[in-house]
């Protein structure tokens, strides 16, 4: 279990570093997890890690999970679902009209189209919108997911 | 033992994906989360039974950590984004017709229907109230912690 504790230590080290870098010097970077990886590598070189492959993989998974949630908040894209749920903290009883009033077409749709255009996934033309090469790649990934898991793309 | 644990954990996750791909074809779309949780726990129990006697606490901890994190990344990363991302929905509409048909009222309606089914929201005399906490709310809780840590 020593290897396991070392992996957790390296991850916590990176995570604290990440929180500190974000809070103190406003550094919006995920490079802190590289520091933890180097630390883990160092422990490995010292012969303290009995399961090197599992340890490395576990560290990558822990970091990826932290990065996933970090990107979830730093991209600032609060989903409509979370907006609806969090609205009940302020107002415990709401009608459909109240819930619809939480959103505007601009906030919900227009801003997202602008994001897609800025990310160069979509281009705007006279007769509508078209996917760019990058947009088509994402679309193909979504189609593959839809076929494998038999899921409809939702709203 | 190192590569063996890693192989078993990745295989367990592969089995998880295979089973949910099959179950999703047979169940209602709102039940997806419940089926994923049942499958996740089922594989965990099966694995515990198969390796009982040959694995100790350490092996189980390694396996469970890797298997759980792979599942978490799939559920909160790929599944959540593919299922609930409005941006991807808009991208899909553009790919299909070059036009955007999504509208605010329908988007809210669909989400309320989903919450009513999962019990996260309850409706009483036309008024919506917060219901029980679902598995998906875990994501919101974790995001809340991250928002406090990364203001």
Explain what this protein looks like in three dimensions.
The complex is a heterodimer of chains A (155) and B (151). Chain A has helices at 2-24, 32-45, 52-74, 80-90, 96-100, 105-118, 133-149, and strands at residues 93-94, 122-125, 128-131. Chain A is mainly α. The longest helix of chain A has 23 residues, at 2-24. In chain B, strand 1 and strand 2 form a beta hairpin. Chain B has helices at 2-26, 32-50, 57-84, 86-97, 104-118, 137-149, and strands at residues 121-124, 127-130. Chain B has six helices and two strands, in the order H-H-H-H-H-E-E-H. Chain B starts with a helix and ends with a helix. The interface between A and B is large, with 70 and 72 residues. Strand 1 (93-94) of chain A pairs antiparallel with strand 2 of chain B.
Biggest sheet of chain A, open or closed, and with what strands and sense? 2 strands, antiparallel
Quote the beta fraction of chain A: 5-15%
Mean pLDDT of chain B: 87
**Structural Rg of chain A:** 22 Å
Average pLDDT confidence of chain A is: 87
Give the overall shape of chain B, derived from the CA principal axes.
Answer: elongated
Largest interface: A-B, 70 and 72 residues
The oligomeric state is heterodimer
Number of helices of chain A: 7
Beta-strand percentage range of chain B: 5-15%
Q: Give the helix tally of chain B.
A: 6
Through-space gap between termini of chain A: 45 Å
Q: In total, how many domains does the architecture of chain A comprise?
A: 2
Low-confidence stretches of chain A: none
Radius of gyration of chain B, CA atoms, in whole angstroms: 19 Å
How many angstroms separate the termini of chain B?
A: 42 Å
